[in-house]
Amino acid sequence: MSNMLLGIRLLEENRRFHHFVWNELRDVLPKTYQFKSHLFGNVGSPVVANSVVREHAQHNKARCPKAWATVHCSTLVDDALDSAHSAQEAREIVEQLVDLYKDAGMSLHKLASSHREVLEGMPVEEIAPSVDVFHFDSSDPST
């Protein structure tokens, strides 16, 4: 997920614990800035990311039941690995996940599938670079 942590806003009262000092000039006192959103590298960031995404999925369970199941059973921080009984079901999962994360101000990236139909129509920039969507061979079970 792109910008996952930047999309998670910090409460006003917690921002004082997430600050940094910046000084461009040696002769001037440094300035202190506070983050308004979670930053990558914070010790608690993985837990916060999991909690926010799981809570968002819970609130949208009726609208995106397949995405809810993937988030709760097959996702760790920003990696989801799920399976489906058919390409159509996998496509439904992907579409619901895209919708769920978009609603949260996040976007999915590095999508991958062993079936062409699951990724058809997805923006090329959202597909994992290791997936060659233009050279699927349906007769080859390894694709």
Unreliable runs, pLDDT <50, ≥5 residues? none
Helical fraction equals: 25-40%
Structural class: alpha+beta
Q: Mean pLDDT, nearest integer?
A: 84
Determine the oligomeric state from the structure.
single chain
Net shape: elongated
Number of strands: 4
Number of helices: 4
What report would you give on this structure?
By secondary structure, the chain is an alpha+beta fold. The chain has one domain. Helices cover 32% and strands 8% of the residues. It contains four helices and four strands, in the order ββααββαα. The protein has helices spanning 45-59, 65-74, 87-103, 116-119, and strands spanning 19-22, 31-34, 75-76, 79-80. It has a two-stranded antiparallel ribbon. Strands 3-4 form a two-stranded antiparallel ribbon. It is elongated. The two termini are 24 Å apart. 17% of the residues are buried.
Task: Give a nutshell description of this structure.
By secondary structure, this protein is α+β, with helices and mostly antiparallel strands. It has helices at residues 45-59, 65-74, 87-103, 116-119, and strands spanning 19-22, 31-34, 75-76, 79-80.
Helix/strand layout:
Layout: E1 19-22, E2 31-34, H1 45-59, H2 65-74, E3 75-76, E4 79-80, H3 87-103, H4 116-119
Antiparallel strand pairs: 1-2, 3-4
Helix pairs in contact: 1-2, 2-3
